[in-house]
Amino acid sequence: MYFLSDNAGPVHPNVIDAIVQANAGYAPGYGDDPLTETARNLVRDVFEAPDAAVEFVVNGTSANALLLATMTQPWETIFCADVAHIHKDECNAPEFYTQAKLSLVPTVNGKMTPEALRTKILAEQNRGVHGPQRGPLSITQVTEKGTIYSLDEIRALTDVAREFGIKTHLDGARFANGLVALGCSAAEMSWKAGVDTVSFGGTKNGAMGVEACVIFDPDLAWEFELRRKRGGHLLSKHRYLSAQMLGYLADDLWLETARAANARCAQLAAGLYDVPDLTVQFAVQANIIFFAMPRRAHKRALDGGAAYYVVNGDPDDGDPAEMLTGRLVTDWSITAADVQQFIDLLHG
Amino acid sequence: MYFLSDNAGPVHPNVIDAIVQANAGYAPGYGDDPLTETARNLVRDVFEAPDAAVEFVVNGTSANALLLATMTQPWETIFCADVAHIHKDECNAPEFYTQAKLSLVPTVNGKMTPEALRTKILAEQNRGVHGPQRGPLSITQVTEKGTIYSLDEIRALTDVAREFGIKTHLDGARFANGLVALGCSAAEMSWKAGVDTVSFGGTKNGAMGVEACVIFDPDLAWEFELRRKRGGHLLSKHRYLSAQMLGYLADDLWLETARAANARCAQLAAGLYDVPDLTVQFAVQANIIFFAMPRRAHKRALDGGAAYYVVNGDPDDGDPAEMLTGRLVTDWSITAADVQQFIDLLHG
Amino acid sequence: MYFLSDNAGPVHPNVIDAIVQANAGYAPGYGDDPLTETARNLVRDVFEAPDAAVEFVVNGTSANALLLATMTQPWETIFCADVAHIHKDECNAPEFYTQAKLSLVPTVNGKMTPEALRTKILAEQNRGVHGPQRGPLSITQVTEKGTIYSLDEIRALTDVAREFGIKTHLDGARFANGLVALGCSAAEMSWKAGVDTVSFGGTKNGAMGVEACVIFDPDLAWEFELRRKRGGHLLSKHRYLSAQMLGYLADDLWLETARAANARCAQLAAGLYDVPDLTVQFAVQANIIFFAMPRRAHKRALDGGAAYYVVNGDPDDGDPAEMLTGRLVTDWSITAADVQQFIDLLHG
Amino acid sequence: MYFLSDNAGPVHPNVIDAIVQANAGYAPGYGDDPLTETARNLVRDVFEAPDAAVEFVVNGTSANALLLATMTQPWETIFCADVAHIHKDECNAPEFYTQAKLSLVPTVNGKMTPEALRTKILAEQNRGVHGPQRGPLSITQVTEKGTIYSLDEIRALTDVAREFGIKTHLDGARFANGLVALGCSAAEMSWKAGVDTVSFGGTKNGAMGVEACVIFDPDLAWEFELRRKRGGHLLSKHRYLSAQMLGYLADDLWLETARAANARCAQLAAGLYDVPDLTVQFAVQANIIFFAMPRRAHKRALDGGAAYYVVNGDPDDGDPAEMLTGRLVTDWSITAADVQQFIDLLHG
């Protein structure tokens, strides 16, 4: 009953195996090894983007910050959702790397609308040197609320961006969960929908710690590499990073793990709808659920062995009837039995 | 015959085993798991520093940059060797994180002398707000030239620093190699010698990618943690970083691997002294050798299957008799037979 | 009929005279001259703050950015009004100097309420290292909308800040206009109301280009001085900056010029209330008026020789009946006849 | 007898007059006024560069930092003299604005040689992402030692730079003093000699506080303007900055003041050669002299009313016979009688 985050479960055995297999003999460091080139090409294949620059880092914060820095000038502002991870959960890393600022676009169910985006872009009107200049757009798929942009919705946002000469970054920490939910290809959910760069997550979906930075314009590759080194994000024993990505992509493991996580989440959602005094707050489309129930019910669930975040209050302290919001995240390793146990626990 | 770097060999099986053992069940992310606390305590034990702050990162550049940033104000200058890794090999990462500059102290055999350090500190004389203010000292043990500071030499440098109210960082990417060469304890080579923070390397000595940042003044811990997150260097699945450190320190593996690397280097050095037209350039004290021999000899060695850096010229192009410098680095995995094969190759 | 900004008019003759008087003989540079010390003491007298650190810079953006940088850590967020100059009009200078980010507090009539501030501070809840940490509060007096915080309102905001251990900066680009409107002392409108640092403006109120940075905690003085030099904001021929401040404060010129500017603005407001199809949008309390009238009326006024900003549209292009907002700012030099001429022009 | 610096004397009356004349009526702020455009064009005329971007700032540190930032990427290193002002006297402002580092080229008599420059550039060899990349060259004319690069010497340095694809910045805080000494034109000492950007100083040569940033490639203009605003260096009442430059350039005042300063310095040098126990240390070519004499002689001169820096020791404390170095700087306002009085004082 561990729903704290999709970074809390074990690494998939295939990824461990790939690391173990990579652990033989000698290889040049810093990504100049053959395994890394193989992994890069595999990502290019996945994205149907043979010319894309592909580089690996250990986590999503560095992927986002480095990609955005490569797309942004220090006097610009980055447009993103008001609930975006880059705004709320990265301790100013995007500002550190880009030296720019963020303009927050209001969201509905975790998603920006084209209208809200346009309004915000227009509000950063052209006042010469006085205000920040318009920088890139950053979209998160799956959103922080567990909802998903349809391909049309992504395209509508990138169309607005393009109208103003603005490029688009996709924070894809849960790229796979979104992709299998939409049943589309990686290309469709990225460059075919107008996206210029992607933080392609592996860590939350079965890897140990690897994200691919995918840049469809290869002219930006060298700047990205310099920024990565300068940020201290180039690994010396790089092959172990690449091995993870190989294990993650081989035999479509990444799709399998994402489907498993989403399926467990759907099972959870189905079970929750019956629970008295419990409201699911957003459409459940991937592997995240937000739900409200009384403090006393949270307390009982947590005391009963469930693990998840209570977002807006202390489950142990306060009015027992007060409605508090909990967040459940499923990863590939959660079992159907686990989910059922949790639902049973809620039913008391 | 792979002497390119000590980051080119495989991860020690014990470290892999530790990762595999850590890969079970659920654990909170971002270092809040019990394995991480165990690993922190193990490092504290190694340094006989029960109150020290200990945090893990994936590589030496981030360890150095984050520790220095925690010790330095943006208007200061950091004193370091003119051959220091933080100056020559980190693509401005220290400047990026500290926002400060570096003052280069001339070296002899890769080592700063107390006199040279004092001269440089005095040269950054107190001219009010005009020049940079004096920031911390950074010492590298083992040095970039493969030489080692004795405990007295470290103490003499930190004494000079202390005289000016300056704190000291130790870049210990090869801490273990230095320690076993000196036959001293980690405490003796750090805080007992006046060092305030240590980048305690694991990656070059058998780990996959982990360094411990050791801060003897725990009051700096929180700032360090915030800087690490802001730099994108806090891993979500943190337990796998900690597991590496556990495997690395358990049963004194780190000392064993360092002794193995140093022993192979000593074997190399012994073999090289006989080779005609070959000069070893610095005292061989740890696991690095710089040596000069004619271009034609380099070419023959490299064509014969050896792998190492030729530092100052193209081995394939130029006067065959010109003396070029090569660098050999041994890691724990190099075998005595490998070394002998290389020496035989040089003898022709 | 020049109402474009209070930086568009001439320098007051007394300030010019002070510069001319300072222009004799030799003086050490960089603020080590006696005139500068006299000017610093005069500011300390004005603020009844004998121990305050007082330093001069040439404009408001640098004053704000340097003061905020001295109060903020790079991993923090600064709380300010959503219409604040530091957010909208300084091209990321605050972010550049502080390396931090801004959290925008919603405003009513240009003013934050204590409730809105508290809500925003609470929203930047303590989530460990993940989100930005809480940094200082920045209040603007006179606000961007021409409204004024009462002393009680300032105190209510700083009280909320203090409750969370947060310090307060006052952007006083129009400090004098606010002060004469409130009829209070500089001390009452700053440290007695809980303010820790002030950007004390001179430029918009008769000086050529000088702002005093007032820091009530003198322990921050040295850091401020280093940041000022590092930002390139320390003038070599510093006495001419100090002379301006002397001329500005001598014989209460600063109060006289502020009263003149506010009086002309009041005269404007009185005249505008009669103009058909014209609505004044905020309380007119200092020297700024926002007003709406049809595009055709703006066009006629501007064609007739008036100069002011039309904030949200092109006066020459669009539906003649559309209501557009104009901004009028009066400085000390505007004459009553000028104002009357403009009102007559509007009346057609 | 005031030789402390050329920023210690009064502003030339013509410059004050120009300010006073500018002080009438209303003008748009931030450089959008006609006076500013006139001043820009005057600088373009002086440099025979009708397309150059020309912008004004208040001091040399900001001019240098902003120009270098416009020419440099954060992962690069700037080549400059080991005695350069940007290295020693700007409290990390160049590092703050560029985010890059400086590579110090050894100097002889304050001047880099092409050989030394080439050696340093080669030392920053191409090692992929590991080291900093090669950034621009910065030359100082007049040098910190009071010596002057001939046009051929400047050309030789920029030729080396160009060979490596490197652009050149000229720190011309004392541009006029160098120019009149060489008897050449501004074009000859800049773009005709391979220079790409110039910090064209006014402050040290009779202005109050103005430097022109001259960028021969106008494509960089917009970035420069954004960086200036973001650095807080765009003045609102900009016309007073422009007026200074107008007064400075009108009727060749700038040449006249530079000739006066240089002439007084030559007079000083001529007088010093006779003084017993006094050695002039560098060729006296502009308006700066370094000289050595015993501590007791310094003490007597300073006690006798002379003002100048003693560079390397306390004139009041130490062995009376120890040779200490003094620095004399003449500005336009120093009189021949002043100089004679000082020489008489030295002769005792």
UniProtKB/TrEMBL annotation, chains A, B, C, D:
Molecular function via GO: lyase activity
Aromatic amino acid beta-eliminating lyase/threonine aldolase domain ranges (all copies): 3-292
Name of the protein in question: L-threonine aldolase
Keywords assigned: Pyridoxal phosphate
GO BP, sorted A to Z: amino acid metabolic process
SUPFAM superfamilies referenced in this protein's UniProt entry, alphabetically: PLP-dependent transferases (SSF53383)
Cofactor(s) named in the record: pyridoxal 5'-phosphate
Pfam families: Beta_elim_lyase (PF01212)
Keyword Calcium: no
Family of the protein in this entry: Belongs to the threonine aldolase family.
Organism: Yoonia tamlensis
